[in-house]
Design goal:
- It contains 27 helices and 27 strands.
- It is of the alpha/beta class.
- The strands form six sheets. Strands 3, 4, 6, 10, 13, 14 and 15 form a seven-stranded mixed beta sheet that branches. Strands 7-27-8-9-5-12 form a six-stranded antiparallel beta sheet.
- Helix 3 packs across helix 7.
- It starts with a helix and ends with a helix.
Length: about 950
């Protein structure tokens, strides 16, 4: 009888003391101090909503079960302890694991957690309602659930037992070492007024840890007993044979799911890609399994977000047992191995280095960076943790809606057949962190950018001006300024192709909370940007920048747009329309600019638009057979048919001829002199190739054949996979880039240099290529370019008067293009000469960029960069974001000395409170000083 009273008192104490103590801490300390701010930050976007939901679960679970215990089981101590260890504690532990340990769930981990959750719910329902003997369906469901409960009780009990044994030993040793008293004394030294808070938290910690020690045996016995009870009653009602069949069916189905889910796809993917590709059959087999390969590589790349770690990294149990019990290393390792088998659904089957390997293999196989190809999946995985992507607008920010385009205004100043155009935009950050915006856009080939400015307001007098700087120096300084700590306002505008530009601006100021707005109402909340350029008239209209790619920026129906002082009433999905109409009738006329270096640039309007003319020369058509080109099969057929229809496949040089060069990955390239025998359907698009590799393969097969032009047929490509090549193969004919579908956002500098120096260009239609070739043939050697209805000529003349000063930037761009063809541009002197032109006329060229600086520190950094020998060495912006891997909870390199843990916890709480007090004081003083 005395034992029964003692047990009843113990059960009452465990349930009520823990719940009341915990609820007191939650409702009188946690919620008043951080609860409401947590809710506010979640709705503001600072904290992911799933973490608020988990936090609510941690608060609600003890509250609900305290009510249930007082309502249903107030006088039933045994039921209270069953409710506590069978339902409340497991649910509470699941919430803690989700908040601090678990990340994006896999099929295997979902199966384990779903089984545990079903068992908890089944146990709770059995406590409240008993066995459903009156309902056949419910009784069968109950039998299935309690079969799983037997497995859950044994599994979770065994799992927790690995921790309970060393924790119990450590608790006893810590208590009797009395180090925790030193911790309390030290904490009181930092904050003596919080003595009761420290003792209260210490009590909760000690009580929770003690209850955890008994949880394995309690949960296992409760679940096994409940499972046996329901199965026994079910067998009495429906026979032992049916019960046995049901148990076997449940266990068999569960094991089939478990075994199938345990097969992680990266194992097979790595095995397939590690095999050498010897022939066409091997390539076809890999392509047939591309979905499996993709799943495997993505799983490996996101392994740190989907799994707790690898088996090799999981050493926590071994170290804990060695530190607390002093067992031989062989026994400790055996225990660790058994533990790893139990948690295998949460362990990654591979190496921690697989992430880098998977990213590399993905780009090699699928011809695109993994962060670009799997952006949605990667962002979802990141959001499953408290991790953040980088502040720099990378591949993961393509299409992200973080910065709102509030206003957009276009102003056109016409000068006859050319115009100055200003683009003015206002941006507002929708997040609580500084953000970078990035535009890739195109302009007509003859257009020239003449300025960029940044500002906190629309005050033109206070906006920050630009400086024309060597491309490498400008990029180096800008990149160094894109950071979260002490962000300042730089902007960078670069020319990255014959028509392509890249605009980056940082930081768009972080969104302010209501409190921050009250404390510092003068703090900037917007970024203002001005961009100006000059462009020639086409079809009585003015061309506007056309978007190729955007990062972080977005617009909607609330974006205000004004073009030429008129509001745009209708919503437009695009960044800008293709053109705006000219106010006056535009008549093309001739222009000439004489430069101080005795060069003259003249622009002559074309009398009639150049039509497609069949050339009498011979052309090499180099075909990109990378994986991504498969999507352009239809356009490729049209291109080949166009060549055949115009006589390029009849083997007659009189009306033009084309030889086809099929580039290849893993297999030798192929030359086809009779393109009429070429069948697009038989081409295997496989792997990835860069432009340099394609041209090298072409040169291997060209022999002594002379061509009038080399046409490299590709798709948009993956600029981000480009290498920082300094040299490209030497070509004896102009290089024409024919991009099926759309233009690439950018070229690497070596490719761009080869295109311009060879006298080639870029286009999206074959007819555009031959129009250019025909026009340049007709105008002779002095022609620099034929674009946008004008032919531009470079001539060496005696110095004369320049009558059109405002037109000089347009002519200066053509001068840079013309001189770049005459110079080798291998020495700094030559590059400085080209840059001096851009600097004098304040324009953007492939060699000179515009950068906006706002303080002396940035200006000094730019001065040093401009004096460096690598000032023209611009790196490829691969956009790859370096994601921080979540902590591995199973990797523990050391265990605190016994007796120190509780003291360290209390000391840590004391330091945290003290530091936060100091932080609040410093913030208040800063606000006062700022105001």
């Amino acid at each position: 009888m005395k034992i029964k009273k003692f047990l009843n008192l113990t059960f009452y104490s465990i349930f009520w003391v823990w719940n009341v103590t915990f609820l007191g801490a939650v409702y009188f300390w946690i919620l008043p101090t951080i609860g409401w701010s947590l809710i506010e930050d979640t709705f503001s976007g600072l904290i992911p909503s799933q973490f608020l939901i988990t936090f609510i679960g941690i608060v609600v679970i003890p509250t609900v079960f305290t009510i249930i215990g007082g309502w249903r089981f107030r006088k039933q101590p045994l039921q209270l302890i069953r409710l506590f260890y069978g339902v409340e504690a497991p649910l509470f532990l699941l919430c803690l694991l989700r908040l601090f340990v678990l990340r994006e769930l896999t099929q295997a981990s979902t199966l384990i957690l779903a089984t545990i959750f079903i068992s908890i719910i089944a146990f709770g329902l059995e406590m409240l309602n008993g066995y459903a003997n009156q309902n056949r369906l419910l009784s069968w469901l109950q039998m299935f659930a309690h079969t799983l409960m037997l497995l859950t009780g044994l599994y979770v009990g065994a799992l927790l037992l690995f921790y309970a044994v060393p924790v119990s030993v450590m608790l006893v040793r810590e208590f009797f070492s009395f180090y925790w008293l030193l911790g309390i004394i030290a904490a009181l030294t930092y904050s003596p007024s919080d003595v009761f808070l420290y003792l209260f938290l210490l009590f909760i910690l000690a009580l929770t840890t003690t209850l955890f020690v008994f949880m394995p045996s309690a949960l296992a016995s409760l679940y096994v007993h409940s499972g046996q009870k329901i199965l026994r009653i079910f067998a009495n009602q429906y026979s032992h044979q049916r019960t046995f069949q049901g148990i076997i069916a449940v266990i068999t189905a569960w094991m089939i799911l478990f075994v199938s889910f345990q097969q992680q796809p990266q194992v097979v993917a790595f095995q397939m890609l590690d095999l050498p590709v010897r022939n066409e059959g091997d390539r076809q087999e890999l392509l047939a399994n591309s979905n499996l390969i993709k799943d495997g590589l993505v799983n490996a790349y996101l392994s740190s977000y989907r799994y707790l770690g690898t088996a090799a990294q999981s050493n926590q149990i071994r170290i804990m047992y060695r530190s607390t019990l002093g067992l031989p290393e062989s026994i400790n390792q055996s225990l660790q191995n058994y533990f790893n088998h139990l948690i295998s659904p949460f362990l990654y089957q591979g190496s921690s280095k697989d992430k880098e390997k998977a990213g590399k293999l993905y780009s090699q196989f699928f011809d695109t960076p993994i962060q670009k190809g799997e952006q949605k999946t990667i962002l979802q995985a990141i959001q499953s943790t408290a991790n953040r992507d980088e502040v720099k607008a990378g591949l993961l920010n393509i299409g992200q809606q973080k910065v709102w385009l509030k206003e957009q205004e276009i102003t056109v100043t016409e000068h006859g057949d050319w115009a100055d155009i200003e683009l003015y935009e206002i941006y507002e950050n929708q997040t609580f962190e500084p953000q970078e915006i990035l535009y890739y856009f195109t302009l007509p080939e003859s257009a020239v950018i003449t300025g960029i400015w940044l500002g906190d307001t629309d005050n033109l007098e206070k906006r920050f001006p630009f400086k024309v700087s060597p491309r490498g120096a400008a990029q180096k300084v800008y990149t160094s300024q894109v950071r979260r700590e002490r962000p300042v306002d730089p902007a960078l505008l670069e020319k990255v192709g014959p028509r392509q530009y890249r605009l980056r601006a940082f930081p768009v100021p972080a969104k302010l909370s209501a409190t921050q707005q009250e404390e510092n109402p003068e703090q900037p909340t917007q970024m203002h940007l001005w961009l100006t350029y000059q462009v020639m008239a086409q079809n009585n209209s003015w061309a506007l920048p056309q978007l190729t790619e955007k990062r972080n920026i977005y617009w909607n129906k609330d974006t205000q747009r004004m073009y030429n002082a008129e509001f745009v009433r209708n919503y437009q999905e695009t960044w800008l329309p293709p053109t705006v109409s000219a106010i006056a009738e535009q008549t093309p006329r001739q222009h000439q600019i004489n430069f101080p270096n005795n060069y003259s640039i003249s622009a002559q309007p074309l009398e009639t638009p150049e039509e497609f003319l069949v050339e009498s020369g011979r052309f090499a058509v180099v075909l990109d057979t990378s994986y991504s080109m498969k999507a352009q099969t239809k356009e490729l057929k049209k291109t080949i048919n166009s060549l055949l229809e115009n006589g390029f496949g009849d083997l007659s040089f009189g009306n033009g001829d084309a030889d086809l060069y099929l580039t290849n990955v893993t297999l030798p390239p192929e030359r086809i002199d009779d393109i009429s025998q070429f069948d697009v359907e038989k081409v295997t698009f496989f792997g990835t190739l860069q432009y340099k590799e394609m041209l090298e393969q072409y040169l291997q097969l060209r022999g002594d054949t002379r061509y009038k032009g080399v046409i490299l047929v590709s798709d948009e490509g993956s600029y981000e996979l480009s290498r920082n090549n300094k040299e490209m193969p030497n070509l004896s004919a102009p290089l024409w880039m024919l991009h099926l579908g759309t233009m690439p956002p950018a070229y690497d500098d070596a490719t761009l240099k080869l295109i311009q120096q060879s006298g080639g260009g870029a286009a999206t239609k074959l007819a555009q290529v031959f129009q250019q070739v025909t026009a340049k043939s007709n105008f002779g050697e002095s022609v620099v370019s034929v674009a946008d209805g004008y032919a531009w000529f470079l001539e060496k003349k005696s110095r004369g008067e320049t009558t059109e000063d405002n037109f000089a930037p347009l002519a200066a761009q053509q001068l840079v293009l013309g001189l770049s063809k005459q110079m080798n541009l291998e020495t700094l002197d030559e590059l400085d000469t080209i840059h001096a032109i851009a600097k004098t006329y304040k324009i953007v060229t492939p060699y000179s960029s515009m950068i906006v600086l706002v303080n002396d520190e940035q200006r000094e950094a730019l001065r040093r960069a401009e004096a460096a020998a690598d000032r023209f060495n611009r790196k490829v912006e691969d956009g790859k974001e370096q994601l921080t891997d979540p902590n591995n909870p199973l990797e523990n390199v050391s265990v605190p000395e016994p007796g120190m843990v509780l003291g360290m916890v209390v000391m840590g709480i004391g330091l945290w409170v003290s530091q936060n007090k100091l932080k609040v004081k410093s913030q208040k003083s800063k606000v006062i000083s700022d105001n």
